Amino acid sequence: MSRILTRTSLILLGIVLVPEWALSSAGEEIYQIEQGFKLIPAIIMIALLGVYVGVGFLSKVSETSGYWVAGRGIGKFGNGAAIASDWMSAASFMGVAGLLYLKGWFGLGYIIGWTGGYVLLLTLLAAQIRRFGKYTIPEFLGDRYDSHVVRLIAASVTVIIAITYATAQFKGIGLICGWIFGMSYSTSVLFTAGVVCAYMLISGMSGVTRNQQIQYVVLISAFLIPLWFLIKKAGGSGVLPQLEYGSILSGLMEGKVASGTLPPEGIEELRKAYLPWGMGNIYQFVALVFTLMVGTAGLPHIMIRFYTVKNEDVARKSVLWGLFFIGLLYWSSPVYAAMGKFWNPMGGKAVADVIILSAPELAGLGIVFIGYLAAGAMAAGLSTVAGLLVAGASAMAHDWYATVFKPDCTDQQALFVGRVFTAVLCGVVILTALNPPALIAQIVAMAFAIAGNTIFPATVLAVWYSRANKYGALAGMLFGLVMTLMAMAGWIAQIPLFGPEGLLPATSSALIVCPLAFLINILVSNITDGRVSEGSAAKMDNILRKLHNLPGYVEEETNAVKSPYTH
Amino acid sequence: MAVRHRVQINFFRPVTPSMKKEVAVARIILALWAFLSFGIPLLIWLAGLGDPTGLGESILTRSRFLGFPLHYWLVAQGATIGYVLLCKLYCVLWDRRITRHRQAWAKSGGR
Hints:
Low-confidence stretches of chain A: 1-30, 61-71, 558-567
Structural class of chain B: mainly alpha
Distance between the termini of chain A: 47 Å
Number of domains of chain A: 1
Strand order of the largest sheet of chain B: 1-2
Shape of chain A: globular
Number of strands of chain B: 2
Radius of gyration of chain B: 21 Å
CATH class of chain A: Mainly Alpha
Radius of gyration of chain A: 24 Å
Oligomer: heterodimer
Order of helices and strands of chain A: HHHHHHHHHHHHEEHHHHHHHHHHH
Number of helices of chain B: 3
Largest interface: A-B, 58 and 53 residues
Helix content of chain A: over 70%
CATH topology of chain A: Sodium/glucose cotransporter
Strand order of the largest sheet of chain A: 1-2
């Protein structure tokens, strides 16, 4: 009976995609996903959700007393998998292959941008952040610059990033729920919100890290397995798809696809996609790569990961493993994209969006595997949303409420405020996910621009430039934030300067803004050097001694509330 | 407490021996990182300047490596595999130059 529904598949996506779908329906039948309720995948997905919640619940019960000890005891593989799982969202699980399908070679900028950022993070920040050893990035900045205002701005930026980023996750999870349970988009967004809240409430924060390791295994195996079947179907030997798709790709540049050789205009299209500058010029490429890199190195929910490891040695090695685990996904996404072009060279966004979801069907892997894949994508989305909401809620509860607004509050009050903020954040995300302002993928890219223009310069100078003070940090961060928001507004208002062709594209603004934010921080810090009080300078120096293992560090007298939110 | 001199930290002017070593390691890694991230695209751009269509066809797009067009492989796999190796190199260099140095320092009663 679902046969009839197959004909009208993609209605789920139809709202956005109808024009392309109507134009390019020929040959698209192999990139379809079935609609309607799917019993077996639904059972598998619910069972895996049960496992996540169960694991979270068990770790919560057993770890309440030794929570911090346990939290700091995470090793390099475990933390590496958690970094990868935090990182690999529903968007990168489902979206990167589609992006590469549409943008060809130019899309590789996303891949190097999102991996190269970890090298920056590792060399410049990871070990020092671990040595600081407190709970949140706003707290780090606030302590280092000895300023509540810096801390509040950093907390606000963290919340903005959490909201924009989580919106994309909700869209991804909503897509999967809609696909498995046959719901409409709005229903599945609300259903998603229910699942996320239940997951966060029942499993608690302590379950999150352990779950992220399980979720990584589920998501990466679900992502990789169909490749071997697909490459065989495309005529490869099926040993290592990540290397074998090279010849298919070379064939594509000469117009060779599954159905034979394309006519000249088709070859022209494919050459445009796979030659370097057919989809954008060198400036746009470098600006995109740079923005994604500094954004990656400046994302608070990724940095927070380094607080939870045993020591700085493990912090370094977990970046190595995290990047390797992330690499497994990014070495494989282009294979899906090339396969998509091979079978359906002219498909538009309709094909791009379902490349991953339709892969098991195309590979003939059966209904059980489809459920597993959906659970993998769900795992990707859930783990990222959990990390984001934790970072966002702790920024509000720990950095704003418990430090600035009501410093004498009890642990319990802070915990309560944290729960309230988690719910509030969830609500805001539901609202934006129901009416997404423009393209989600681009909004995610803007979250990177914000992180790269504000948090990254402030953090790097905090660690590596002792003269940087609160005035410089404030000037630099405000400049970065205002410029990014202005570029975003200009992009929405379609001002050419901020458009994809402009000098300051909203999604790639960091190439210009980030170095300027560095410069402004340095200049203002030098000008205002004399205005920093003795006490303040002593406090900043003390933090710097701790960051760089210099002799003379004095343990602070602190009665600050421990944040129960970091994990 | 006696008045202390302010701590001087500058990535380009490291003071303590330990920090000098840290910064030296970071510089090596960052130079290689910059080459992978921006040097390779720039090479592809320079090589492709001669293409009148502006698409950047060049020796790099015509050559094949492991079956891939070279310009595609360099970015899709060359750079990303390079990043993982850079992280490994960083950990190795750190262990070799800094951890050992610290241990020796601690043994000699430096702390």
